[in-house]
Amino acid sequence: MTVPSPADATGPWAAAAMIAAVVLFSTTGEVLTAAAMKSIGDLDQIRARSGMKGAIRAVVTCPLFFAGVSFLALAFFSLLFALNHLNLSLVAPASASLTLVTNAAAGKLFLHENVDRRRWAAAALVCVGVYLLAH
Amino acid sequence: MKHHLTARQYSVLGLVALCAPLGDTCLSRGMTHLPAISLAHPASLVAAVFTPWIVVGIALLIGFFASYLTALSWADLTFVLPATAFGNVIVALLSKFWLREPISLERWAGIVLITVGVGFVAQGPALTEQPAAESVNAMREMEEERVP
Predict the structure, then answer these.
(1) B1 located within any domain
(2) Is residue B34 assigned to a domain?
């Protein structure tokens, strides 16, 4: 008797929704964390000025940082949920490579980063590269 | 003004790239060496945290998060993420030359694409100059010009 693969029991729409949830939570978490670190300022300079304790205090007293970490935790649990229903060889490369592209778009939209042709090309190349490497 | 990184900042990016895949590998190795854990016995999951491979894995992932946050404080998210994806290549090469695992043609293609992508992003500025910062810099330059 052959044991069915978890992916066999899950429809394509459900699989897409699970991967989309991982990508959405992960992108939101990364963008909020990046915004928090930009609002805090250069950590190397803070550490030079007020020591390691000062740098840690600057990070843990920033509400945006905790919002970012909460979304990263949601991304982690949605990844665990997806892995419970889908194959690792589908979830890992798909979520890792799609997150790179959504982060480039979110970085431009919400963080107003200068995502020029060079960065789009890098995101696309790394996206396909991660997919090929992990597939 | 273009933001180019110092040697120290490149080493922080290197730590981000190395610590995450090495930490994941340690966790994976530690968890596969343990007997199967069921949700009915959650205490065995807590006990797993204190096994040597998991301890090393958690320490590496704490190192990853600290260096990742540091990198985000002086570089753009759209610079840090592709630049640190080079860690995938390091792990693939370690598995080939250290663990003697075979690497398929598809994986070699992936390694080449990631390397080219990282090369692309590393040549550009690390941080977007925000308008407020630009005006402050311009004012400073004007003041410096006024001083004889």
Answers:
(1) no
(2) yes
Note the pLDDT tens digit of each residue in A40-63: 998 888 988 888 899 999 999 999
Q: Are B20 and B61 in contact (CB under 8 A)?
A: yes
The count of domains in chain B is 1
The answer to whether B16 and B138 are in contact (CB under 8 A) is no
User: What is the CB-side half-sphere exposure of residue B66 using CA atoms within 13 A?
Assistant: 13
Both tokens assigned to A13:
């729409």
pTM of the model: 0.77
Cβ count within 10 A of residue A92: 19
d(CA A48, CA B135): 26
Question: Residue B106 is nearest to which of A30, A44, A135, comparing CB atoms?
Answer: A135
Full domain range(s) for residue B52: 7-146
Q: What is d(CA A24, CA A43) in angstroms, rounded to the nearest whole number?
A: 27
Q: How many helices (H) and strands (E) does chain B have?
A: 7, 0
The one-letter amino acid code at A6 reads P
- Is residue B2 assigned to a domain? no
Interface of B with A in 66-95 (CB under 8 A): 69-70, 72-74, 76-82, 85, 88-89, 92
C-alpha A32/C-alpha B57 separation (Å) is 25
d(CA B32, CA B29): 5
- Indicate yes or no: CB of B128 within 8 angstroms of CB of A116: no
Question: A25 near A74, Cβ under 8 Å?
Answer: yes
Distance of CA A91 to the CA centre of its chain: 13
Task: Give pLDDT tens digits for B37-66.
Answer: 666 777 777 787 888 988 998 899 899 999
